[in-house]
Amino acid sequence: METLPVALAVRDVEPEDLPGLQWSGGSAHLRAVAESWQRSLEGEVVLVCVEASNGQLVGLGGLDLSKDPVAGELWMLAVHEAWQSLGVGTRLVRALEQAAAQHGRTSVQLSVEDDNPGAAALYERLGYREVGRRRESWPLDDGTTFTTTTTLLRREL
Ligand SMILES: CC(C)(COP(=O)(O)OP(=O)(O)OC[C@H]1O[C@@H](n2cnc3c(N)ncnc32)[C@H](O)[C@@H]1OP(=O)(O)O)[C@@H](O)C(=O)NCCC(=O)NCCS
């Protein structure tokens, strides 16, 4: 198989990136991204994107430092559909783990929905292990709130 190398850079999200991240979710999600960017100014979260050498934003992910003094929490991980299974998600997770270590965290955790076995397999491959279950909820575009039970995974850094 022929391979085509593409340079990828992981960098902080800037407000002008929001239009280029519309692929990552609906309007409620994009509002959450904008709010997370605000929180990044306070140092509560680290919000990064993956930029391909043509300027396209192909990945998004966040690290929440406010939930726990020991563990950083990864969330909002998303890779553009056309760029999945090429290692972008792995690059994102590793970059956010590095940011967590730089902020003094000794472990990172994230939660995954039961109907997302592909993502769970990726995290397991990256060294994450199940440490529990929890209830989570988030707003949907129609104004309702979606509630589900997720598996909490953790990796020591
Ligand atoms: C989950 C998600 C973030 C993973 O991102 P990704 O870029 O596809 O992840 P990677 O490419 O690093 O790894 C995915 C698979 O591709 C394979 N892969 C990694 N690098 C590769 C490469 N260079 N060439 C070919 N395959 C590769 C990996 O083996 C991996 O397989 P596995 O999951 O069976 O172990 C992405 O699928 C996504 O955005 N999904 C929708 C939103 C979502 O579910 N978010 C997570 C919520 S918890």
How does this model look, in words?
The chain is globular, with a radius of gyration of 15 Å. The chain is an alpha+beta fold and 157 residues long. The protein has a single domain (8-156), classed as 3-Layer(aba) Sandwich (Aminopeptidase). The protein has helices spanning 27-41, 88-102, 117-125; strands at 8-12, 45-52, 57-64, 71-79, 107-113, 129-139, 145-156. The longest helix is centred in the N-terminal third of the chain and has 15 residues, at 27-41. Helix 2 (88-102) links the parallel strand 4 and strand 5. The chain has a seven-stranded mixed sheet with strand order 1-2-3-4-5-7-6, sandwiched between helices. The structure holds coenzyme A.
In short:
The chain is α+β, with helices and mostly antiparallel strands and 157 residues long. It has a single domain (8-156), classed as Gcn5-related N-acetyltransferase (GNAT) (Aminopeptidase), CATH 3.40.630.
- How large, in whole angstroms, is the Cα Rg? 15 Å
**What is the string of SSEs from the N terminus onward?**
EHEEEHEHEE
Can you identify the CATH class? Alpha Beta
Query: Which term fits the overall shape?
Result: globular
Low-confidence sequence ranges: none
The percent range for helix content is 10-25%
Could you name the CATH homologous superfamily? Gcn5-related N-acetyltransferase (GNAT)
Report the bound ligands by name, code or SMILES: coenzyme A
Strand coverage percent: 35-45%
- Give the end-to-end Cα distance, rounded to a whole number of Å: 35 Å
Give the strand line-up of the largest sheet: 1-2-3-4-5-7-6
At the third CATH level, what is the topology name?
Aminopeptidase
GO molecular function, one term: acyltransferase activity, transferring groups other than amino-acyl groups
Protein name: Ribosomal protein S18 acetylase RimI
Keywords: Acyltransferase, Ribonucleoprotein, Ribosomal protein, Transferase
Organism: Auraticoccus monumenti
